[in-house]
Amino acid sequence: MATPDRLSYWNKTRSLMFVMLGLWFFFSFVIHIFVNGLNNIVILGFPLGFYMAAQGSLIAFVIMLFWFARKQNAIDEEHGVAED
User: Fold this and answer.
1) Which of 10, 31, 32, 64 has its CA 20 to 30 A from that of 58?
2) Which domain holds residue 66?
3) Average pLDDT, the chain
4) CA of 47: how far to CAs of 13, 27, 40, 53, 68, in Å?
5) For residue range 45-61, what is the model confidence (pLDDT) as tens digits?
6) Is 48 a member of any domain?
């Protein structure tokens, strides 16, 4: 891979990584900081804060995992370093 292409590849990969770290931080810490306020909202008989702590964050992490893999694969294919 040529040097300018390497820089482009790394910049896109780094940007994706920072987006994922930001989302991870949000679903790991920020939502749980506001759990008392979220508990005022009730869904199916459960407070939203409890739901986000018990299930919502895990669901978000699984979705983020698949989204990251798809985006990184697209970056790899664009720069010719994709696996078969």
Assistant:
1) 10
2) 3-78
3) 89
4) 37, 17, 7, 10, 30
5) 888 887 777 788 899 99
6) yes
